[in-house]
């Protein structure tokens, strides 16, 4: 791997091979029979298909030392050598925010996502996402920017804190995703809920579908929800307070907002939940803020943290445990995360301000 992108000629007609970053890739059995451009797109995910096709047409891709044309396919065990003409054209915008990385190897990262950080750019959040932050981190590990792209395998809601696994290669992304789909990934969450759970343990098996409200983000267990899908959340009470409960939840399925919807359906919405009220009801949608014509820089008074009357100013949900088989070695791995300061501070307030009833172990 030689040089920086700034050293590389931009025209394929005047390539000086010694100045171009060169890579050798072994074709995996999962990509057996794939066309060369698709194979390259899996490995260089920050390059567009059009840009990678330029590389093939320039004669800068070899398969087992034979120059490849754009229609050739690759087969398991072959060696593909590629020299990249230009820098990637789909790199995420850098974000210098620091996010705790609990584990790192060539195939994946385990991160402890702070509350308030969205998983990847979407809608109105096109920057300041976890993907932007990790792109910055990965660019510091490679000789040229954009060689690696963080693969968001699963996501946490913006205001949910805790553990996430991020894939660094297409094969690890595929294998981890298959683990999630097959239910071979174990996740646990800590939740602070309104009200006191009567049962110590339980299993919520109500199907979850899209709420019939016109707001596509909302989910529901009610009979009028659309496209309901089987869902299950097991729970165990950790600690009871006079008006709240600390619960550990283990979802066995992966529906959107699953824990929040299931607990609210039982009559125990999360503290600070911006969407879900007890028994299938919803908080009203806050109207879109329009600044005054006399003060175009006026800030939205409702844009700040939620008012809960407690230290936590978001929905009280933290992904505290994540366990799965390593996507390449198959070794079973387990990671844990303590709740962040706002979550722990809220527990302390509930303990000190209310007579609690701690369960015996």
Please provide a brief summary of the model.
The chain is an alpha+beta fold and about 350 residues long.
The major sheet is characterized as: 10 strands, mixed
Tell me the name of the CATH homologous superfamily of the largest domain. Pseudouridine synthase
CATH class category name of the largest domain: Alpha Beta
What's the rounded overall pLDDT mean? 86
Strand content: 15-25%
- What CATH calls the topology of the largest domain is Pseudouridine synthase
The CATH architecture term of the largest domain is 2-Layer Sandwich
The total strand number stands at 17
Task: Give structural notes.
The chain is built from six helices and 17 strands. The chain has helices at 36-43, 49-57, 130-139, 170-181, 258-265, 341-353; strands spanning 22-26, 61-63, 66-67, 79-83, 101-104, 108-113, 151-152, 161-167, 186-194, 201-204, 208-210, 219-220, 226-229, 233-240, 244-251, 317-325, 332-336. The strands form three sheets. Strands 5, 6, 7, 8, 9, 10, 14, 15, 16 and 17 form a ten-stranded mixed beta sheet that branches. Helix 1 packs across helix 2 (49-57). The protein starts with 21 loop residues before the first strand and ends in an 8-residue tail after the last helix. The model is unreliable at 1-18, 295-303 and 355-361 (pLDDT under 50).
Provide tags for this entry.
361 residues; disordered C terminus; Pseudouridine synthase; alpha+beta; 3 domains; 4-stranded antiparallel beta sheet; 10-stranded mixed beta sheet; Structural Genomics Hypothetical 15.5 Kd Protein In mrcA-pckA Intergenic Region, Chain A; single chain; disordered N terminus
């Amino acid at each position: 791997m030689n040089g920086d992108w700034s050293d590389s000629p931009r025209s394929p007609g005047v390539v000086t091979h010694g100045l171009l970053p060169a890579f050798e890739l072994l074709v995996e059995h999962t990509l057996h029979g794939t066309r060369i451009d698709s194979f390259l797109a899996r490995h260089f995910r920050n390059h567009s298909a059009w840009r990678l096709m330029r590389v093939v047409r320039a004669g800068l891709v070899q398969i087992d030392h034979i120059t490849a044309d754009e229609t050739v396919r690759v087969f398991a065990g072959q060696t593909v050598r590629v020299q990249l003409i230009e820098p990637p054209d789909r790199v995420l915008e850098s974000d210098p925010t620091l996010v705790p990385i609990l584990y790192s190897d060539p195939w994946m990262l385990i991160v402890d996502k702070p509350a308030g950080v969205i998983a990847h750019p979407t809608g109105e959040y096109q920057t300041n996402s976890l993907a932007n932050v990790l792109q910055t981190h990965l660019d510091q590990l490679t000789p040229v920017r954009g060689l690696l792209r963080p693969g968001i395998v699963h996501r946490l809601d913006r205001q949910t804190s805790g553990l996430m696994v991020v894939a660094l290669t297409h094969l690890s992304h595929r294998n981890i995703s298959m683990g999630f789909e097959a239910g071979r990934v174990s996740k646990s969450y800590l939740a602070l809920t309104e009200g006191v759970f009567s049962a110590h343990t339980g299993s919520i098996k109500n199907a979850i579908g899209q709420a019939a409200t016109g707001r596509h983000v909302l989910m529901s267990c009610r009979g009028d929800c659309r496209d309901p899908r089987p869902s299950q959340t097991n729970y165990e009470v950790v600690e009871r307070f006079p008006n709240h409960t600390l619960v550990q939840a283990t979802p066995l399925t992966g529906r959107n907002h699953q824990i929040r919807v299931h607990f609210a359906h039982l009559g125990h919405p999360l503290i600070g939940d911006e969407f879900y009220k007890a028994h299938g009801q919803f908080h009203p949608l806050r109207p879109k803020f329009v600044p005054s014509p006399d003060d175009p820089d006026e800030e939205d008074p409702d844009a700040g943290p939620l008012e809960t009357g407690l230290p936590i100013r978001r929905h009280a949900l933290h992904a505290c445990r994540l366990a799965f088989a390593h996507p390449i070695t198959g070794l079973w791995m387990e990671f844990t995360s303590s709740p962040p300061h706002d979550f722990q501070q809220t527990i302390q307030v509930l303990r000190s301000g209310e007579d609690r009833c701690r369960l015996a172990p």
